[in-house]
Amino acid sequence: DAGVIQSPRHEVTEMGQEVTLRCKPISGHNSLFWYRQTMMRGLELLIYFNNNVPIDDSGMPEDRFSAKMPNASFSTLKIQPSEPRDSAVYFCASSTSTGWDYGYTFGSGTRLTVV
Amino acid sequence: AQTVTQSQPEMSVQEAETVTLSCTYDTSESDYYLFWYKQPPSRQMILVIRQEAYKQQNATENRFSVNFQKAAKSFSLKISDSQLGDAAMYFCAYSRSGGSNYKLTFGKGTLLTVNP
Fold first, then answer.
1. B49 near B61, Cβ under 8 Å?
2. A35-70, pLDDT tens digit by residue?
3. Nearest CA of chain A to the CA of B101: how many Å?
4. Mind giving me the DSSP string for chain A?
5. Residue of B90, B92, B103, B111 for testing the chain A interface, max A β-carbons within 10 Å
6. In which band, very low, low, confident or very high, does the pLDDT at B98 lie, cut at 50, 70 and 90?
7. More confident residue, A21 or B100
8. In angstroms, what CA-CA distances link A75 with A5, A48, A100?
9. How does pLDDT run across B25-58, given as a tens digit for each residue?
10. How far does the CA of residue A14 sit from the closest CA of chain B (Å)?
């Protein structure tokens, strides 16, 4: 199994630009989570999907952030327009809805730098 | 809301020695799950060990074991015979049981240094 695949691994963009982060969950996992990690705030859940449907997006910081899961094998997190305070590592994780209690499988993360 | 607190921002241990990382949590639930994740410099999040709240027995995975004190809402991680490869950030995490809201709530982490 290839694990959870995130792309790109690193992204540097200028303030005001649109940024799209991508995630491919493990095949057969029907729950997908987007987390953001910063030194100040630690790991924060942004949004999670179950069977491609957003269940809880209360962690999405503001309207500049949006996430989609058009099918079971792909999700995107978009920031438009980006700001320097969005600089962070963004993780995607997946699990089965019956196996979540065994923890998630995380991707390697995307380090986003907004200059 | 559930919260997870790791009161030790940094810890260090000598190679081959034992170290214990602390974690406390706050919840009104009676059934839940607790986890320790390791994040090495590669930044990959790796599940180290998990504990089911309804089980009295402390979980063990090779050199890693936990001390789960449900009444005190404490969940510490003990690493025995520390190795250089154990150097990483360690995160304690909580997840409630049941329903559809099974998100993980993480503590701020403890940075473990292993000295040769």
1. yes
2. 999 998 899 999 999 899 998 898 998 899 999 999
3. 8
4. ----EEE-SEEEE-TT--EEEEEEPPTT--EEEEEEEETTTEEEEEEEEETTEEEE-TT--STTEEEEEEETTEEEEEESS--GGG-EEEEEEEE-TTTGGG--EE---EEEEE-
5. B103
6. low
7. A21
8. 11, 10, 18
9. 999 988 889 999 999 999 999 999 999 888 889 9
10. 24
From the list A101, A106, A111, which residue is nearest B95 (CB)?
Answer: A101
The answer to whether B82 and B15 are in contact (CB under 8 A) is yes
Quickly tell me which residue has 């491919």 as its tokens. A24
CA A92 – CA A28 distance, rounded (Å)? 15
Q: Which helix (H) or strand (E) holds B38?
A: strand B32-39
How confident is the model at residue A103, as a pLDDT?
Answer: 74
The 10 Å Cβ neighbour count of residue A62 is: 8
- Chain A's closest residue to B38, CA to CA, is A106
Q: Give the rounded distance of the alpha carbon of A68 from its chain centre.
A: 10
Rounded to whole angstroms, the Cα distance separating B5 from B74 reads: 10
Q: Which residues contact A110 (CB under 8 A, 6 or more apart)?
A: A6, A7, A8, A9, A10, A11, A21, A89, A90
